[in-house]
Amino acid sequence: MRGDPDRLRLPYFPDHAALFVEARALPLSCAVAISPRNSVDDQGTIVAIERTLSIIKPDATERNIVGLIIVRLESAGLQVIAQKRVRWKKKDAKKFYDVHKGQPFYKDLVNFMTSGPIVLQVLEGENAILRNREVMGATNPVDALPGTIRKDFGVNLQRNSVHGSDSEKTAKREIALCFKKSEIVG
Ligand code: UDP
Ligand code: MG
């Protein structure tokens, strides 16, 4: 198998024989689309393997429910490939939430995010950005669907237990802000 130029090995499922793809059998567009950042599902559809930034916020670390939250993320097929518990300084929170500068909640948000330890994580998986947002639930816990992290653990609109990047561009920026390349270990 190894060394056969007509077969592409999908690195995320190294032992799954069914996922060896005959490159010569694919239209050019499909062959090009299969990269180490993509995968193929049971129906043969190409699925994006993405990375997203997750933060477990101070209201959750304070209540000792970090493990419960990680169980939800892992159960949804998201893999923690980088993780650290930190206490942000004001400048860190201000920079991270720069997009909200000028919003009425910005100052309080910065105060909240620096009020205690947080857990920063890079999550990886199929459509990880959207999947994480789905598992998190709506920003305001009262609007979040049953079974989501924010519905089950969030306290209020501000103290909503988790952060997740909202787009590919944001994910890249947020991961780079929070982790050195060498800290993303898989
Ligand atoms: N937030 C708040 N008041 C608001 C809106 C947002 O305190 O009216 C806080 C809340 O903690 C939220 C964060 O600011 O998670 C970032 O807001 P955003 O609109 O980006 O929501 P998210 O992407 O976290 O769902
Ligand atoms: Mg947001």
List keywords for this structure.
186 residues; alpha+beta; 5-stranded antiparallel sheet; two-stranded antiparallel ribbon; 8 helices; 33% helix; binds uridine-5'-diphosphate; binds magnesium ion
What small molecules does this complex bind? uridine-5'-diphosphate, magnesium ion
Largest sheet: 5 strands, antiparallel
Radius of gyration: 19 Å
Order of helices and strands: EEHEEHHEHHEHHEH
Structural class based on helices, strands and sheet pairing: alpha+beta
Characterise this structure.
The protein is of the alpha+beta class and about 190 residues long. Helices cover about 35% and strands about 20% of the residues. It contains 8 helices and 7 strands. Strands 3, 4, 5, 6 and 7 form a 5-stranded antiparallel beta sheet that branches. The chain has a two-stranded antiparallel sheet with strand order 1-2. A hairpin with a 5-residue loop joins β3 and β4. The protein is globular and about 45 Å long. The two termini are about 25 Å apart. Uridine-5'-diphosphate binds next to loops.
Provide a quick synopsis of the model:
The protein has 186 residues and is of the alpha+beta class. It is built from 8 helices and 7 strands, in the order ββαββααβααβααβα.
Topology:
Elements: E1 7-8, E2 21-22, H1 28-33, E3 38-40, E4 46-56, H2 58-62, H3 66-75, E5 79-86, H4 90-96, H5 106-113, E6 118-126, H6 128-136, H7 149-153, E7 162-164, H8 168-178
Antiparallel strand pairs: 1-2, 3-4, 4-6, 4-7, 5-6
This protein binds uridine-5'-diphosphate (UDP) and magnesium ion.
Uridine-5'-diphosphate (UDP) is lined by residues 105, 109, 139, 157-158, 160, 163, 166.
